[in-house]
Amino acid sequence: DTLQEVYLYLSSHNALHQSIKRIRNVNLPAVPESLRDLVILKNLKKILNSSKFLVKDSIVDNN
Predict the structure, then answer these.
(1) 3-class secondary structure for the chain?
(2) Residue 55 lies inside a defined structural domain of this protein
(3) Distances (CA, A) of 55 to 9, 46, 47, 48
(4) CA distance linking residue 40 with residue 48, whole number of Å
(5) pTM value?
(6) 17 found inside a domain
(7) 12 is a domain residue
(8) CA distances (Å), origin 41, targets 34, 38, 46, 53, 54
(9) According to the model, what pLDDT value does residue 63 have?
């Protein structure tokens, strides 16, 4: 009986999921709209031996 009373005060699974999603999105950077908007942090540009992570970039055709 008390368990059913507790359920009345709990949020639905969907409501909890949406709340968690909103909180996570606050901490995420904005999604870049183009490659020019893409910011790669300095510590992610090199691998462990200090060589560049990305040696050459290329454009891949969609076909």
Answers:
(1) CHHHHHHHHCCCHHHHHHHHHHHHHHHCCCCCCCHHHCCCCHHHCECCCCCECCCCCCCCCCC
(2) no
(3) 55, 10, 11, 15
(4) 16
(5) 0.34
(6) yes
(7) yes
(8) 17, 10, 10, 12, 13
(9) 60
Q: Distance between CA 48 and CA 31 in Å, rounded?
A: 27
Residue numbers of the domain that contains 23: 2-38
Confidence class for position 1, pLDDT limits 50, 70, 90: low
For the chain, what is the domain count?
Answer: 1
With respect to residue 20, please indicate whether it lies within any of the assigned structural domains: yes
Distance CA 35, CA 48 (A): 25
**Structure-token pair, residue 23:** 């909180």
Provide the token pair at 7. Answer: 């359920």
Query: Each residue of 5-58: pLDDT tens digit?
Result: 777 777 787 888 888 888 888 877 788 898 888 888 888 888 888 888 776 666
